[in-house]
Amino acid sequence: MNLNRLQGKLGYVFRDVQLLERAVTHSSFANERGTGDNERLEFLGDAVLELAVSALLLERFPEAREGQLSRLRSRLVNTTTLARIAREIEIGAALRLGVGEDQTGGRDRTSVLADAVEALLGAVFLDAGFARARKVAVGWMEGELAGLADDGSGDVDLRWKNARSLLQERIQHERQQTPRYRVVGHEGPAHEPTFTVEVHIGDTVLGCGSGSNKREASHAAAEAALRALGEPA
């Protein structure tokens, strides 16, 4: 069990290493050795993670409604995501497992890994407080949040909602029409495409924008249209 390597992956060095040891101690090991396990830290870490992610989403999506925020949080904070984070920081190699649990694949079991990640966050909270634990949690979730932005679900359309909404409200108010978005270009390799989108009212092009996906290009086109109309996007 290399706790130094785990701390390096975590980006945090514990003042009280016993908290770290407890965080990686599965109940199967505790039952065999008569020690404490990580379940109480898991309970705490779950609450810390939910609060940290809730605050992150409020900051990133100031116009989102409660239901949208709840859906985003549930897509970020779940067993699959936490297990993926656990594998990235290689927590499995540091787990203290009972013999049976270890022999039956516990080090890569999704539920075990997810619980250990929450326990680890709980341990950071006890060792250094919420601000440091939140920094760790946000570091984990930044990549997950970016990944959701392009998955086509619609939930993360919030990040592009403002410019398009402003443009639509203005055009409907002034002209009683609705802007239309049309893809006019698509180039580059499949792994790094560039889309070009125009926003139209009738036959008039109000703005044009480019981006790595259709949503991003549409957002850029709406911003260009707002600038052309004299309104900052």
Secondary structure layout:
Blueprint: H1 3-10, H2 17-23, H3 27-33, H4 39-60, H5 66-76, H6 79-88, H7 99-103, H8 110-128, H9 130-149, H10 158-175, E1 180-187, E2 194-201, E3 204-211, H11 214-228
Antiparallel strand pairs: 1-2, 2-3
Task: Provide an overview of this structure.
The mean pLDDT is 87. The chain folds into two domains: 3-149, Ribonuclease III domain (Ribonuclease iii, N-terminal Endonuclease Domain, Chain A); 155-228, 2-Layer Sandwich (Double Stranded RNA Binding Domain). With 233 residues, it is mainly alpha-helical. The relative contact order is 0.12. It has a three-stranded antiparallel sheet with strand order 1-2-3, covered by helices on one side. The chain contains eleven helices and three strands, in the order H-H-H-H-H-H-H-H-H-H-E-E-E-H. It has helices spanning 3-10, 17-23, 27-33, 39-60, 66-76, 79-88, 99-103, 110-128, 130-149, 158-175, 214-228, and strands at 180-187, 194-201, 204-211.
What can be said about the biggest beta sheet?
3 strands, antiparallel
Widest sheet: strand order? 1-2-3
Please state the overall shape, judged from the principal axes of the Cα atoms: elongated
Structural class: mainly alpha
Mean pLDDT figure: 87
* CATH fold category name of the largest domain: Ribonuclease iii, N-terminal Endonuclease Domain, Chain A
Oligomer: single chain
Amount of beta strand: 5-15%
CA distance, first residue to last residue: 52 Å
C-alpha Rg, in Å? Answer: 23 Å
CATH superfamily of the largest domain: Ribonuclease III domain
